[in-house]
């Protein structure tokens, strides 16, 4: 009955609804009355409204509704209520509340309607849809680590969520972008920004403007001429900051998504933007990043498109998960630091009654003045109270806060790191969960890329960790990763009958008494007694005497095997097969390198004592004679539960089982698409986890200074002269602004003391076991290693031999990592220091410097226990750094000569300049007559010119909405040809414009319509679908008319579109290295002709996309490219499971093109033989088969839509 329906709907509304902006629904005082609160988008406050249904007998079919508000609501809100009440006739309570939220969502404090929500092109047809929630995934969903947004049907599918392209709408966009540009950023856009449709906005700035040191740029693998780019994707049209504040966090993610990256231009191409928001599996993403890293290491100077930075993944999560909420807190008066702290403190809690005005959240953050104004700018704080704020500008300033200052924040929880910990690379805080997520989510550096690009640096890092663990100096451990390692009693280098002082290489801290470790039995929760079995070394099989016992392990687990005939040798094996238990198959054993015959530990190294267990005599005839009695230990001990002594032991024992870095590099080069985790029979998960931790936790910048690996290809000119026989590394530590602080100290001290030589170089020596912590924590004097007879500070010496005396303390031959190529026996650093020895703690006999900002590391020299055959012969550098004659450090034989490149570029003497007509040039360093182009300090002359399309948005005050788009023209290179009249007014016309070389062989408009399956408009066409298709078609032509065709890769001839429900599209200009492109060229085919057919339910249902010609090689015949044997596209995106109503056709075309270009699992190839078209019938059947195979849902009414209303027997 009507009254019961009303009561049921009202109870549902009172119980809680997920309608954005609606809250606190309550039963009213009169029959048929209820009240609710609506959020005001302008100020964040809520307004109370009441609704009255006079005749409940007509509910919910033909009843009328009356809406009332209090006297203090804005006038425009009160004036809008009668119209809303008229539109609410016959609507249920839920529909009424959705209507109110939608209509009042964009009303500001003055009552003017904002630009983001008043799209009325679709009428009210969608408001009468059924109540089923739309659950399709968005084409550009958030990353897997971000929870999926929950939203009502009106948010997910209603076309009215698009913005109306009014003059006010365009004016707001222009104002927001001009705010960003006036601050110093470059702005750009892609897509239909001014038409209120899906689009991309880009904000960028050159790396050179961020005040990042050269050392940090090297560590972060970025160049000063590159751009840091923020892409903001608006799937439903541009949204202002006020609009997003009116949404909850989940709904806001529906309307905006962000990505951070590096590019050689100020904005990416459309294809790069789409690719940036395409969700990949973890393996695919790793392959993409590895490919980017490899190309960068091979040719760092080559032009590169948009790519992920070293910190893109955590920053993307931070932006999409937290930014909108943090902005809301900012508008409550909190600074960025307070908003972030408040978010962290109240994560997962109810904040309704929390103390948001606590002083700790309102305290202004103290930011180093060394940062440029561009980095420290705060648009929210600086904007006037009556000034609108720009979301792109706020977002970019937030990005700079976490990019430039990335080492100050944890990469997982984004909390502030300890103030006393400085590093040049970002890392995680000391929470075990953060380390676990950092490693498991892949936020750390790619160890595969590091091994390929800098093998000696990886060798050095492992060697430092091995020596530190071996000598008892390791204090930090990879806890929280749940590494499963062998129990302590299984590891080969433990002698339970000796004291800790006999432990090879063990060295306690200064003035610390020796402490014996606990017995293994007390340090582990896992069983420490070995299991017994018999082992065949030739067949790699174990056999157990009792087949009735359960198998003690599973396939894939690792064990240690010791045979009775050689009990001191450990065989680390992976379980391969347990199906035929009591016989178990294992992999080829991994023997620790320290126990191999060719490994020398020195004369004092003693083999471990091992007592072989006794075995019962095997029954005759039951076990073959080639099975030898043996014991095994499983990798079943949780590393986190071990005592520190045994943690160190587990680390160096597992590192002992790793292949050499050269072997790992060779494996990765041979398996280009694989990581080390695929080498399952050689590297255990525990050893791989420790290796990842070693590389990821390195927070210093270490670059080998040899021509073979130097990424700049300088062929040894940066090598320091006078250190023959040493492997040299450029070495930088400290925060990214450490170099700037050092330069400031140098200049201020030099000016104060009138110094001719502002700095000098000196040696710093430290035992090998300390370097693992030094490269993570930097140089400090928090711990005492050798006593401090001359005061507290960092000790230096001008004499090499003096500092080397401290390097060998505690070293034994067993301290070197056995598989190492370097065989590191000692390491010594050369630091640059402010030349004010009278202000040191001590200057004789040692220089003790307490001012850490006065010290900057420059070089690290490594000496091996074996001669390094790869050491480059030293040559005197052509340009040298002039040193203080009274403070020149001595090397092993004579005074050293330091190249000019040892100091930062800003402190080098001005190069010899040669006047030319346009640019400065300087000597390359090898030959004064060999000049190279020099952009002085990377000023704005090095900036990429802003494109005409982006200047037009900023300069044209009243950009009209064109009703009739011009026909798309053949491609003319952007910015290369004659300037248009508008562009001429800005920059002047080009006088010497020359025709550019064609970028493609595709000829637009050459397709013969008489040979295409053209359809008449369908009888079942609906007004909403037609309007949406017209809007999408118009947007697509606008993109086609403004973007270079060879970059788009698709083309639509407007003359061929006579039916809005059938579009003919050509894909062209594929990468010429693709097999598909080669096939097309050999057959003289210029494009792939495709057809898109739309149904009456569009955009709620996906279009039918198929190839017309040419025919592709089918999957069964070895083809790929996601094209079925019938020509239909095999993509989840084009089914009900993957389609979203907010997906744009432009993104569909780009995704289809990417699918055809994919080489995984097989590349697309063309069918041999005579040319013939696909028929629509075979495409329909192939599409249905594909859906059934993958479990995808075929859209309702698919066949009617696919056949265009014609009988299914049609040849087309």
UniProtKB/TrEMBL annotation:
It holds the Pfam family UQ_con. Signal peptide: none annotated. Gene3D superfamilies: 3.90.228.10, Ubiquitin Conjugating Enzyme. GO terms for molecular function: NAD+ poly-ADP-ribosyltransferase activity; nucleotidyltransferase activity. Residues 1024-1193 form the UBC core domain. CDD domains: UBCc_UBE2Q. Residues 107-141, 285-307 are annotated as: Disordered. PANTHER family: POLY ADP-RIBOSE POLYMERASE FAMILY, MEMBER PARP (PTHR21328). This is Ubiquitin-conjugating enzyme E2 Q2. It comes from Mytilinidion resinicola.
């Amino acid at each position: 009955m009507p009254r019961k329906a009303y009561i049921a709907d009202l109870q549902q509304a009172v119980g809680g609804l997920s309608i954005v902006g609606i809250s606190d629904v309550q039963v009213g005082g009169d029959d048929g009355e209820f009240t609710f609160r609506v959020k005001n988008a302008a100020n964040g406050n809520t307004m109370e409204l009441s609704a009255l249904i006079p005749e409940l007998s007509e509910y919910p079919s033909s009843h009328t509704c009356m809406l009332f508000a209090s006297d203090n609501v804005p006038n425009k809100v009160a004036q809008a209520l009668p119209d809303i009440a008229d539109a609410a006739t016959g609507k249920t309570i839920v529909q009424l509340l959705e209507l109110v939220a939608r209509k009042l969502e964009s009303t500001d404090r003055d009552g003017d309607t904002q630009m983001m929500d008043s799209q009325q092109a679709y009428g009210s047809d969608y408001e009468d849809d059924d109540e089923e929630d739309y659950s399709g995934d968005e084409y550009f969903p958030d990353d897997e680590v971000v929870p999926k947004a929950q939203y009502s049907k009106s948010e997910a599918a209603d076309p009215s969520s698009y913005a109306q392209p009014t003059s006010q709408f365009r004016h707001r966009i222009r104002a927001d972008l001009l705010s960003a540009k006036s601050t110093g950023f470059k702005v750009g856009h892609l897509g239909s920004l001014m038409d209120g449709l899906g689009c991309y906005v880009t904000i960028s700035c050159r790396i050179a403007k961020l005040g990042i040191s050269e050392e940090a740029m090297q560590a972060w693998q970025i160049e000063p001429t590159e751009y840091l780019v923020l892409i903001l994707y608006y799937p439903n049209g541009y949204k202002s900051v006020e609009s997003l504040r009116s949404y909850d966090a989940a709904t806001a993610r529906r309307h905006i998504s962000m990505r951070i990256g590096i590019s050689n231009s100020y904005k990416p191409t459309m294809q790069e933007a789409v690719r940036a928001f395409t969700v990949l599996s973890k393996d695919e993403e790793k392959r993409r990043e590895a490919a980017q890293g490899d190309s960068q290491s091979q040719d760092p100077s080559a032009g590169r498109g948009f790519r992920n930075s070293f910190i893109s993944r955590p920053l993307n999560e931070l932006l999409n998960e937290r930014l909108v909420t943090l902005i809301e807190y900012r508008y409550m008066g909190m600074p960025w630091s307070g908003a972030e702290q408040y978010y962290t403190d109240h994560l997962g809690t109810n904040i309704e009654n929390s103390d948001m005005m606590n002083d700790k959240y309102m305290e202004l953050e103290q930011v180093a003045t060394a940062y440029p104004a561009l980095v420290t700018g705060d648009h929210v704080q600086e904007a006037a109270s009556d000034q609108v704020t720009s979301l792109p500008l706020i977002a970019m300033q937030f990005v700079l806060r976490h990019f430039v200052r990335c080492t100050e924040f944890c990469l997982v929880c984004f909390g502030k790191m300890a103030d006393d910990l400085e590093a040049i690379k970002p890392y995680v805080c000391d929470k075990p969960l953060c380390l676990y997520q950092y490693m498991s989510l892949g936020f750390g550096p790619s160890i595969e890329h590091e091994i390929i690009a800098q093998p000696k640096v990886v060798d050095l890092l492992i060697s430092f960790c091995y020596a530190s663990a071996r000598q008892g100096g390791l204090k930090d451990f990879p806890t929280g990763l749940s590494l499963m390692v062998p129990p302590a009693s299984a590891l080969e280098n433990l002698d339970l009958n000796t004291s800790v002082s006999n432990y090879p290489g063990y060295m306690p801290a200064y003035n610390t008494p020796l402490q014996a470790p606990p017995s293994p039995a007390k340090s582990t929760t896992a069983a420490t007694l070995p299991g017994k079995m018999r082992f065949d070394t030739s067949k790699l099989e174990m056999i157990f005497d009792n087949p009735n016992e359960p198998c003690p392990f599973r396939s894939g687990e690792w064990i240690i095997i010791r045979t009775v005939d050689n009990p001191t040798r450990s065989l680390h094996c992976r379980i391969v097969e347990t199906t035929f238990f009591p016989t178990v198959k294992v992999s080829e054993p991994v023997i620790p390198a320290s126990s191999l015959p060719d490994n020398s530990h020195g004369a004092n190294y003693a083999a471990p004592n091992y007592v072989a267990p006794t075995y019962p005599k095997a029954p005759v005839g039951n076990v073959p004679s080639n099975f030898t009695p043996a014991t095994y230990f499983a990798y079943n001990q949780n590393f986190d539960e071990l005592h520190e002594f045994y943690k160190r032991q587990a680390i160096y024992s597992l590192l002992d089982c790793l292949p050499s870095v050269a072997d790992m590099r060779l494996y990765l080069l041979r398996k280009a698409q694989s990581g080390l985790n695929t080498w399952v029979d050689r590297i255990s998960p525990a050893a791989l986890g420790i290796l990842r931790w070693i590389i990821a936790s390195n927070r210093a910048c270490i670059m080998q200074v040899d021509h073979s690996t130097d990424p700049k290809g300088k062929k040894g000119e940066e090598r320091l002269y006078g250190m023959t026989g040493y492997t040299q590394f450029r070495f930088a530590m400290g925060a990214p602004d450490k170099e700037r602080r050092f330069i400031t100290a140098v200049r201020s001290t030099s000016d104060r003391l009138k110094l001719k030589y502002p700095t000098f170089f000196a040696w710093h020596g430290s035992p090998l076991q300390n370097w693992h912590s030094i490269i993570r924590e930097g140089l400090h004097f928090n711990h005492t290693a050798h006593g401090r007879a001359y005061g507290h500070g960092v000790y230096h010496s001008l004499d090499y031999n003096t500092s080397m005396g401290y390097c060998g303390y505690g070293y034994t031959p067993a301290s070197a990592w056995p598989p190492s190529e370097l065989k590191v026996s000692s390491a010594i650093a050369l630091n640059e220091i402010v030349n004010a020895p009278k202000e040191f703690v001590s200057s004789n006999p040692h220089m003790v410097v307490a001012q850490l900002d006065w010290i900057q590391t420059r070089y690290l020299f490594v000496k091996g226990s074996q001669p390094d055959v790869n050491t480059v012969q030293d040559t005197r550098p052509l340009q040298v750094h002039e040193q203080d004659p009274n403070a020149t450090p001595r090397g092993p034989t004579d005074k050293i000569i330091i190249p000019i490149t040892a100091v930062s570029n800003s402190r080098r003497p001005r190069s010899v300049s040669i006047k030319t007509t346009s640019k400065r040039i300087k000597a390359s360093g090898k030959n004064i007559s060999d000049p190279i182009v020099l952009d002085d300090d990377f000023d704005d002359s090095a900036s990429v010119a802003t494109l005409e399309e982006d200047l037009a948005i900023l300069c044209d005050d009243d950009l009209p909405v064109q009703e009739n788009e011009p026909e798309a023209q053949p491609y003319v290179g952007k910015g290369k040809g004659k300037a248009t009249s508008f562009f001429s007014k800005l920059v002047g016309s080009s006088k010497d414009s020359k025709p550019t070389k064609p970028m493609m062989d595709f000829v637009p408009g050459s397709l013969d319509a008489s040979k295409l399956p053209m359809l008449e408009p369908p009888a079942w066409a609906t007004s909403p679908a037609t309007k949406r298709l017209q809007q999408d078609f118009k947007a697509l032509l606008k993109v086609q008319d403004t973007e270079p065709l060879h970059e788009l890769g698709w083309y639509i001839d407007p003359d061929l579109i006579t039916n809005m429900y059938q579009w003919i599209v050509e894909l062209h200009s594929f990468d010429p290295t693709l097999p598909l492109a080669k096939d097309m060229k050999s057959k003289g085919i210029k494009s792939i002709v495709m057809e898109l057919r739309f149904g009456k339910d569009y955009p709620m249902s996906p279009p039918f996309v198929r190839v017309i010609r040419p025919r592709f090689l089918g999957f069964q015949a070895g083809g790929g490219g996601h094209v079925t044997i019938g020509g239909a596209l095999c993509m989840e995106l084009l089914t009900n499971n993957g389609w979203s109503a907010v997906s744009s056709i432009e993104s569909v075309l780009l995704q289809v093109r990417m699918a055809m270009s994919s080489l995984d699992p097989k590349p697309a190839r063309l069918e041999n033989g005579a040319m013939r078209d696909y028929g629509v019938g075979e495409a329909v059947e192939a599409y249905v088969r594909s859906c059934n195979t993958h479990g995808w849902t075929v859209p309702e009414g698919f066949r009617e839509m696919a056949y265009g209303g014609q009988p299914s027997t049609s040849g087309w």
